[in-house]
């Protein structure tokens, strides 16, 4: 583990709004606690990173691989019509990338999901189903973290 990973701490807003599912080699995988959308977030475990260009070249490559694998898995698992992938950071400056599986019958389609409707939290049973489904489809690439 390098120093930047040792100093990594998840932003309080992400910790409050999301469920930690596990870790890829570089990134922590979060599930936004809003059952209206399959909405996942990758957070590279690198302290102080607010932009992709803050990462080393090797970390950029790893992040892109993790993002692509996650997007494909989510699209297949949730039958997405379109994957919305975004790195905004206007409110939460910590580098994080949203991966949202969109369908024509989701409550915000075709507009953005942000602040469209109040969040509807997942049940513990549904969280566990998603955790196991995602992990099995990623063929063990994701190290599950204890709840």
UniProtKB/TrEMBL annotation:
PROSITE patterns listed in its UniProt record: HIT_2
HIT domain boundaries: 41-109
InterPro entries: HIT-like (IPR011146), HIT-like_sf (IPR036265), HIT_Hint (IPR026026)
MF terms in GO: catalytic activity
Superkingdom assignment: Bacteria
Descriptive protein name: HIT domain-containing protein
């Amino acid at each position: 583990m390098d120093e930047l990973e040792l100093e990594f701490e998840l932003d309080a807003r992400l910790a409050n709004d999301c469920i930690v599912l596990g870790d890829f080699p570089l990134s922590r995988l979060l599930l936004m606690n809003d059952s209206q959308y399959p909405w996942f977030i990758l957070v590279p475990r690198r302290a102080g990173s607010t932009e992709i260009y803050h990462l080393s070249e090797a970390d950029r490559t790893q992040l892109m691989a993790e993002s692509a694998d996650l997007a494909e898995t989510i699209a297949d698992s949730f039958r997405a019509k379109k994957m919305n992938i975004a790195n905004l950071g206007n409110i939460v400056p910590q580098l994080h990338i949203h991966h949202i599986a969109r369908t024509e019958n989701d409550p915000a389609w075709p507009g953005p999901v942000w602040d469209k409707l109040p969040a509807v939290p997942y049940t513990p049973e549904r969280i566990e189903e998603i955790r196991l489904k995602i992990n099995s489809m990623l063929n063990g690439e994701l190290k599950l973290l204890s709840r």
